[in-house]
Specification:
- This protein has 166 residues and is an all-alpha fold.
- It has a domain of 67 residues.
- 64% of the residues lie in helices and 0% in strands.
- The protein contains seven helices and no strands.
- The C terminus is likely disordered.
Amino acid sequence: MTSDLDVRARRHLLRPDGQEDVTAPDDAHRAARLSNLSATLRARFRHGGARRDLDHAETAIRLAVETTPSDDRRRAGRLANLAAVLLARFDVSGEGPVLDEALAASRASIAATRGDDVDLPGRLSNLVALLLTGFERGGSVQTWMRRSRSAAGPWGWRPAVSSSGG
């Protein structure tokens, strides 16, 4: 029996002309298709737990980010999706460098987001969730406070609690 997620994954692999090569370099919608495919595979991973779905989701979103021009407004969302895939990978592996890369992707997503973009609060919230995840998994309060401060970006946000606890 074919699941809805299998059907959605298959649909994202098809180009308008019916070809199945989503990665064709001449496809104008390549990055969008790869991003959608990654989201579908990540959803299927959450439901089924198949590691290969997470692996393919990561590959697809990395390609989507790589093929999206740096001045394209959709790049910020794709970087946010990369951070989400990497967080899922960290949840499976517990490897610190994976979380560091997720944090970097999240920060890059925020840096690429205009200050008046309606997605900015969600992206900031996702960064806070990543920082909290890292803190809960270990490390000193001072280390995570430094990371929080470095996440402030151009908004000048600072955590309300100082590193001395006061």
